[in-house]
Amino acid sequence: MEVPQDTRSTCIGYSAGGSLLGTAEREGLTASNILYVAPAGSGHEVSSPSDTASPDANRYWIQTRDDPISVAQVGGGGFHSGSFWTGGSPKTQMGAVRLESGFVDPKKPDSLMRGHTDYFAEGSTSAANIQAVINGNRVSMYVEEVFHYGFGYAYSESPIEERPEDYANMKLQTVTTESLEK
After folding, report:
1. Average pLDDT estimate for 54-82
2. What is the predicted pLDDT for the residue at 1?
3. What's the whole-model pTM score?
4. Closest by alpha carbon to 123, among 170, 176, 177, 162?
């Protein structure tokens, strides 16, 4: 099927499907947007966007902080990336912009999304970000960890985990997808 070049298209891969998405891109799948949802890796023999048919695609990534899939990403997931030695991180391998997984119910600070299963929960921050990428609307940016260093110590903390009330009720930083796209 021929799709006009200026048509906004988004392909989404979840878990092992994220790796399959990368492999499909290597085999010729093209899209203007690629969205990895807690992917197992970047795809068989895919180490960077240049290994795909859509090297200039806008790439996004949503994943909870404690998702166990990160073990597969760090280890390369065997066939889930270009190399066992380099891993299959959507950020370092594919240059994806990380979006916030946020809350299962954005109005409830005690509903911070965890694990590997709620990304598509209706009304969640994650589902809203997925829809926003598809439609080209505003997305909630990932709340980065804060690192603390001192003489003899170093640690990190996650502001959204430490103070979820500061981010619930639509207080997450949002930007337009247009501002993130190439």
Report:
1. 82
2. 62
3. 0.90
4. 170
